[in-house]
Write a structure and sequence with these properties.
single chain, 746 residues, mainly alpha, 3 domains, two-stranded antiparallel sheet, 27 helices, 62% helix, 5% strand, transmembrane, transmembrane helix, membrane
C-alpha cells in the first residue's frame, strides 16, 4: 500500500511529460457537455425547422381559399388544400442528395405528414358562419347603420304603452265594425217587415170588416133587395124577413079555398116573395162559398205574418228567451254584449233595442193566435152562439153561416149574435195589432237614429258605400300587384338554384305566405298584428343586438334597389330584390316583393287607422264619422303606397311624436327584416338563405367547399451523436423522433 502511494506521488509530481490528471478531469466533462449540447442544438433546430415547415405548408394550403366567396367576406376552401399541404411539406426540407457537399447542422428526415379539416367547423356551422360575418362586418356595419334605419330606431323609440294603445284601437275598430255589422244585419231582417206590421190590421181585420162583415145595404129591412150583399151585415139585416117569407111560402102551400082575385094576389105576392127569398139565398150561397173562402184567405195573411215576422225576430223555432242564431234578437244581444261597459262604445247603446221590444212582439202574436185560433175544428156542434167568439176569427164565417140556415124554429137574432161576436173578436185583435205596431215603432225609431246624417249630410249608408269603394280600390291595387308578379318567369331558374342549395344546407323553403285577406275584419286584424310586431321591436331594439351584424351583412351583399313601381316586372326580380329572398324565403318569382308589399300595406293601414281613431272617436265623430274615418284610412293607405314606391312616404308616428320620418323602401325592408329577426327560428333560416344566396352568386357549394379550419401533422427524425447512449428509450438507434401538429383557421 505504501508502495502504491509512493508510485502515485512520484507519477504526479516527479515524472516529466506525464498527462496531468487535472487536465483530464477538465477536458473530459467539457467534451461530454459539448457532445450533448451539439445533439440538443440539433434536436432544437430540427424541431424549429419542422414546425416552420408544417406552419408554412398549412398556411400555403389555406391561402388557397375561394376568391369568389372571399369577395363576400367569407373564407372557405376545399379538399385541394390537403394536397397543397402535402406538396409544400415535401418541398420544405432538403434531402441528403440535395445537401451533398454541404454541411448541415441537422439533417431532418420527415417520416410522415398529413393534414385534415376539423369536423363540424365548415361554414355551414352557425358559430363558424357568425364568427366570419362578425369579423367581416365589425367595421362596415356601424357605418352602414348610421343612416335612415338608425334614425328610425331613434325617433321610434317606444314603450309598452304604445303597444297597449295599438291594442286599444284594434279592439275598438274590431268591436265597432262587429257591432255595426250586427246592427245592420238586425235592421235588414226587421225593416223588410215594417210595412207588413204597419199593414197587418189593414190586410186582416180591416179587410175582414170591409169585405166579410161589410156594410148594410140602404133600404127597409122588410124588403130583400136584388142587390143584397153577400156579407154578414146584409145577411143579418134581412135574415128576419127571409125567415118570414119562407114561412109564408110554406103556409101558402097549404090547401085553402080562395077566390080568383085572392089567388091572383097570392100568386103575385108569392112571386115577389120567391124573388126575395132567391135574392137572399143567392147572397147566402155566395157568402158560404166566396165569402168564407175569402175570410180564410184574409186570416191566411195573418198566418203568413205570424210565421215570417217571429222567424225574423227570434229565428225558426226561437223565442225571446232562446233566440236562434242569425235572428234579429240574436244580433241585437251580440251587439249589446260587445258594447258592455266599454266607455268608448257607450255611444252605440242608442242603437240597441231593449228586451221589451222583443217580448212585446212575442206576447202580441201569442194573444193574436188565441183570438184567430186558426186550428179550430169543433165549431160545428155549437148550440149557444153567444159563445161563438171563443172559437176564434178563423171560423167565424162558418159559424155565421150556420145561423143563416132556416128551420121552423130558427132564431132570427142568431146572425146578429154571430156578427156581434165577430166584431168583438176583431176589436180584441186590433188591440193586439196596435201593441205590435207600437212595439215596432221602437225599431223604427232605432232605425232613424242609425240613419241620422252627420254635419256633412252623410249617413251610414253613405259611409258604407265610401268604405266599400275604398276597400275595392285597395284590393284592386293588391290584385294588380299579384297580377304583375305572376308575369315574372325569368327568375325561376335562379330560384330553383337557391332551393337546391337551401335543401342541401338543411334549410326551410320559406316562412309562409302572407296575403291580405278580402274580408275587412281579417284585413284589419292582419294590419294591427303587423304593426304590433313592429312596435314590439321598437319597445326593445336590444333584443336583436346579437343579429345586427348578420342583418347588415345580408344588406351589404344582397340587393334592395330600384325600381319599385308596382307595374314594372323588374321591380319583382331577384336581381333588384335579392334581400327580400333572405327576409321571406319564397321560391316563386315575384313572391318575395309581393310579401314585402303586403306587409307594408298592412302597417300603413294600421297607422292610418291609429291616426284617425285614437282618443274616444265615437264621442268626437259619432258612428257615421267613425265609419267615414275608416274609409278615409283605407284611401290614405292607397295614397301612401303611391308615395312609398316613389320614395316620398313618411312614416306616421302616433302619440305625439315630434315628426314623421321619410321611409324609403330599402329602409322599410331593413325595419321589417329586423322585426322578423326577433324570432330565433327565422334567424336559423336566414343564415341558410344567406349562404344559399352566396352559393347562387358564386356557384360554390359549401358542402364541398366550406372548410375553415385545417390541422397539419408531421413526424420527423434527426440523427444524433451521443444521446442514444444517454437517453435510452427516447431515441431509436442514433435518431430522435418527434411529432409536430399545427392548425390554421380563417
Amino acid at each position: 500500500m505504501k508502495e502504491f502511494k509512493r508510485y502515485i506521488k512520484s507519477f504526479l509530481f516527479k515524472k516529466d511529460g506525464s498527462v496531468s490528471i487535472f487536465a483530464i478531469s477538465i477536458i473530459l466533462p467539457i467534451f461530454i457537455f459539448n457532445a450533448i449540447f451539439i445533439d440538443a442544438i440539433r434536436v432544437m433546430t430540427a424541431e424549429r425547422q419542422i414546425e416552420n415547415a408544417v406552419e408554412a405548408a398549412i398556411r400555403s394550403a389555406m391561402s388557397n381559399y375561394d376568391t369568389s366567396v372571399a369577395q363576400h367576406g367569407l373564407f372557405v376552401t376545399d379538399d385541394s388544400a390537403i394536397t397543397t399541404f402535402n406538396e409544400v411539406m415535401n418541398k420544405q426540407l432538403y434531402s441528403s442528395d440535395e445537401l451533398s457537399g454541404f454541411n448541415n447542422l441537422s439533417q431532418i428526415n420527415i417520416t410522415s405528414s398529413s393534414a385534415n379539416f376539423q369536423p363540424q367547423t365548415d361554414i355551414l356551422q352557425k358559430e363558424v358562419f357568425e364568427y366570419q360575418v362578425n369579423e367581416s362586418m365589425k367595421y362596415q356595419a356601424p357605418i352602414q347603420m348610421a343612416g335612415e334605419f338608425a334614425q328610425f330606431l331613434k325617433l321610434a323609440k317606444s314603450d309598452k304603452s304604445d303597444v297597449e294603445e295599438i291594442d286599444n284601437v284594434e279592439k275598438f275598430v274590431e268591436n265597432f265594425e262587429e257591432i255595426m255589422d250586427l246592427v245592420k244585419k238586425r235592421n235588414d231582417l226587421l225593416k223588410d217587415y215594417t210595412k207588413r206590421v204597419e199593414h197587418l190590421e189593414r190586410d186582416t181585420t180591416k179587410k175582414y170588416t170591409d169585405d166579410i162583415i161589410g156594410k148594410e145595404t140602404s133600404g127597409p129591412a122588410d124588403e130583400i133587395p136584388e142587390n143584397i150583399q153577400a156579407n154578414m151585415s146584409d145577411l143579418t139585416k134581412y135574415f128576419p124577413e127571409y125567415v118570414k117569407l119562407v114561412k109564408q111560402e110554406n103556409e101558402d102551400d097549404e090547401d085553402k079555398e080562395l077566390s080568383k082575385e085572392e089567388k091572383e094576389k097570392q100568386e103575385e105576392e108569392s112571386k115577389k116573395s120567391k124573388k126575395e127569398i132567391d135574392y137572399y139565398e143567392k147572397a147566402r150561397s155566395k157568402f158560404n162559398g166566396e165569402g168564407i173562402k175569402n175570410s180564410i184567405k184574409l186570416i191566411g195573411t195573418y198566418e203568413t205574418a205570424k210565421e215570417d215576422i217571429p222567424k225574423a225576430v227570434f229565428g225558426d223555432g226561437g223565442t225571446s228567451k232562446n233566440p236562434k242564431k242569425n235572428s234579429a234578437m240574436y244580433y241585437n244581444q251580440e251587439a249589446k254584449k260587445l258594447i258592455g261597459d266599454d266607455s268608448e262604445l257607450s255611444e252605440l247603446k242608442k242603437l240597441i233595442l231593449e228586451d221589451s221590444f222583443f217580448t212585446s212582439i212575442e206576447s202580441s202574436f201569442e194573444e193574436m193566435d188565441k183570438l184567430f185560433k186558426t186550428e179550430s175544428t169543433n165549431y160545428k156542434g155549437i148550440t149557444d152562439f153567444t159563445t161563438a167568439r171563443n172559437y176564434g176569427l178563423y171560423v167565424q164565417g162558418s159559424i155565421f153561416s150556420l145561423t143563416t140556415v132556416f128551420d121552423t124554429g130558427a132564431d132570427t137574432q142568431l146572425p146578429k149574435v154571430s156578427k156581434t161576436s165577430t166584431e168583438a173578436l176583431i176589436k180584441d185583435i186590433n188591440v193586439e195589432i196596435k201593441k205590435l205596431t207600437d212595439a215596432w215603432k221602437k225599431f223604427e225609431d232605432s232605425l232613424k237614429v242609425y240613419n241620422e246624417k252627420n254635419k256633412d249630410g252623410k249617413d251610414m249608408e253613405d259611409a258604407e258605400k265610401e268604405q266599400e269603394k275604398s276597400l275595392g280600390d285597395l284590393f284592386d291595387k293588391i290584385n294588380s300587384i299579384t297580377d304583375t308578379a305572376n308575369l315574372i318567369g325569368s327568375d325561376q331558374e335562379t330560384y330553383n338554384t337557391l332551393l337546391t342549395y337551401t335543401e342541401k344546407y338543411m334549410g326551410s323553403s320559406s316562412d309562409g305566405e302572407f296575403l291580405l285577406e278580402n274580408s275587412k275584419k281579417d284585413l284589419f286584424a292582419q294590419a294591427f298584428g303587423k304593426l304590433k310586431e313592429l312596435y314590439s321591436l321598437l319597445t326593445d331594439p336590444k333584443q336583436i343586438r346579437s343579429e345586427i351584424y348578420m342583418n347588415e351583412y345580408a344588406k351589404a351583399n344582397f340587393s334592395m334597389e330600384k325600381p319599385y313601381e308596382l307595374t314594372d316586372p323588374h321591380s319583382y326580380s331577384y336581381d333588384s330584390k335579392a334581400l327580400l329572398y333572405v327576409v321571406y324565403g319564397h321560391y316563386m318569382p315575384g313572391a318575395n316583393y309581393v310579401h314585402f308589399l303586403m306587409e307594408v300595406i298592412a302597417i300603413m293601414l294600421a297607422l292610418n287607422l291609429m291616426d284617425k281613431l285614437m282618443n274616444n272617436p265615437l264621442s268626437r265623430l259619432g258612428w257615421v264619422g267613425v265609419a267615414l274615418a275608416i274609409g278615409l284610412a283605407i284611401l290614405d293607405t292607397i295614397d301612401d303606397l303611391n308615395d312609398f314606391i316613389n320614395e316620398r312616404y313618411n312614416f306616421k308616428f302616433f302619440k305625439g311624436r315630434a315628426k314623421n320620418l321619410k321611409m324609403t323602401p330599402s329602409t322599410f325592408a331593413s325595419v321589417l327584416f329586423s322585426v322578423r329577426t326577433i324570432d330565433s327560428g327565422f334567424n336559423a333560416n336566414k343564415r341558410i338563405r344567406i349562404l344559399s344566396g352566396i352559393s347562387e352568386k358564386t356557384s360554390v357549394d359549401f358542402t364541398e367547399t366550406g372548410n375553415t379550419i385545417l390541422t397539419g401533422k408531421a413526424t420527423a427524425e434527426v440523427k444524433l451523436l451521443f444521446l442514444p447512449q444517454l437517453f435510452p428509450g427516447e431515441v431509436s438507434g442514433n435518431s430522435k423522433t418527434f411529432d409536430v401538429s399545427k392548425y390554421y383557421n380563417y
